[in-house]
Design a protein that fits this description.
The protein contains 12 helices and 20 strands. With 383 residues, it is an alpha/beta fold. The chain folds into 2 domains: 108 residues, NAD(P)-binding Rossmann-like Domain (Rossmann fold); 216 residues, Dihydrodipicolinate Reductase, domain 2 (2-Layer Sandwich). Bound molecules: NADP nicotinamide-adenine-dinucleotide phosphate. The site of NADP nicotinamide-adenine-dinucleotide phosphate has 22 residues, from helix 1.
């Protein structure tokens, strides 16, 4: 199978390198923006790839929606398989691309878009196709935020220093806002929902990242016997899809507390199989490229799609997802909510009774709109 690559950045170069030695595969042309005399396999016109009858599959590794979507459509219309690592593209245009793939009798796969090297989506799809009823999806799906949280809690470094180290190590992008805000994590769970439930949540998700977390929060949480992780969760309950991401206090000794540095954990719970957790690296050149290669191998075995063309776009609703929350807020702003108060004074710290996810996110957003600095995290019990 001859494989072309669009984009020669972190993932694109990784895929091209792995293809050179992968048995049964041939590394084809690579689309670059500008002439690259140092790269004999580079082309700057995508049509050269589309009209090449020897190219069987194309990897989209440019990122973003445009021109990735336009290129992806052209690839499928030209009768070539499309594999992408681009969660933003699949979250926005997945059903359309799946439909085009079906019309043209080719494959559209995107395992690397959720979990990097972790074979999460493919495992989920196999489980669903084998009749497993998936009752819960959850995970630590962003390595950058996990690295920052872990360094702050293990090495007692400040947020800004942990972020700077993540950038130096290549975990965080120059603009890390999608990671820090939780957007990257929510896009990944959107894809997992589409694969699992044939429903793609496009709004209604509650999204909280890690930018409010401080060294003082880390210290206090540690003394309570917890570790803070950014957890993403989804489930389908009586035709209502719930999907959200938020800092979560996980008991010391839990699987989550053992996910260190830029590690990821992707779990699903099935009625028959119980909870299955896959642990590995969620990003990186060759880790992500290895996932793309596995998709190519699946295409060779006849696999065509990961989501169905009729995948419905839905609004998530987290009103009935309830749990206790840890809160740190200025004095007198959260008193009514707290069941247990740990600290009072200029700053209040405490834990609420069980309250709904949407209420909590809405409440904190309202406080922030009034200028208050607030940190909150769901409190989990041991599994
Ligand atoms: N990095 C990871 O570990 C990782 C993991 C999982 C998924 N992903 C996903 O994989 C995708 C690629 O990420 P990445 O980290 O590899 O990004 P990247 O390093 O920025 O690579 C993207 C490459 O595409 C090039 N490019 C942009 N527009 C192009 C065009 N019109 N024609 C040809 N090339 C073009 C860029 O060139 P310029 O730099 O000159 O613009 C860059 O070299 C993203 O969707 C990302 O979310 C990445």
């Amino acid at each position: 199978m001859k494989v072309a690559v669009l984009g020669y950045g972190t993932v694109g170069k990784g895929v091209h390198d792995l293809l050179i030695d992968a048995p049964g595969f041939e590394a084809g042309p690579v689309l670059e923006k500008e002439e690259r005399p140092d790269l004999p396999f580079a082309v700057t016109d995508i049509d050269l790839i589309l009209i090449d009858p020897t190219v069987d599959a194309v990897i989209e590794a440019i990122g973003g929606i445009d021109p990735a979507y336009t290129f992806g459509k052209k690839v499928l219309e030209s009768g070539k398989h499309l594999v992408t690592s681009n969660k933003m593209l699949v979250a926005a245009k997945g059903p359309e691309l799946a439909s085009l793939a079906e019309q043209n009798g080719v494959a559209f796969l995107f395992s690397a878009a959720c979990g990097g090297a972790i074979p999460y989506l493919s495992n989920l799809q196999t489980a669903v196709n084998s009749g497993e009823e998936i009752v819960r999806l959850q995970g630590i799906l962003n390595g950058t935020t996990n690295y920052i949280l872990d360094r702050m809690q293990t090495d007692c470094v400040e947020f800004a220093d942990a972020l700077a180290d993540a950038q130096k190590l290549g975990y965080a992008e120059a603009d890390p806002s999608a990671d820090l805000s939780g957007m990257d994590s929510i896009r990944k769970i959107m894809l997992a929902c589409a694969v699992t439930y044939n429903e793609l949540p496009v709004d209604g998700m509650d999204i909280e990242g890690i930018t409010s977390f401080t060294r003082e929060d880390a210290e206090h949480i540690k003394n309570l016997g917890y570790v803070c992780r950014l957890k993403t969760k989804a489930k389908l309950v009586e035709n209502t899809l719930r999907a959200y991401v938020e800092p979560t206090l996980c008991p010391l000794g839990s699987i989550e507390s053992s996910i260190r540095l830029n590690g990821n954990m992707a779990s699903y719970t099935g009625n028959s199989c119980g909870m299955i957790s896959l642990i590995g690296e969620g990003a990186g050149r060759y880790t992500t490229a290895s996932s793309v290669l596995r998709d190519l191998e699946q295409i060779r075995r006849g696999k065509k799609i990961m989501i169905r063309p009729d995948c419905r776009r839905v609004t998530a609703n987290n009103e009935d997802s309830m749990h206790r929350y840890y809160l740190r807020a200025p004095e007198h702003t959260v008193d009514d909510l707290l069941l247990t108060v740990y600290e009072s004074g200029k700053i209040t710290r405490g834990v609420t009774d069980k309250i709904s996810v949407s209420f909590m996110h809405g409440f904190v957003n309202e406080l922030r709109s009034q200028g208050y600095d607030v940190f909150f995290a769901a409190v989990e019990r041991a599994h």
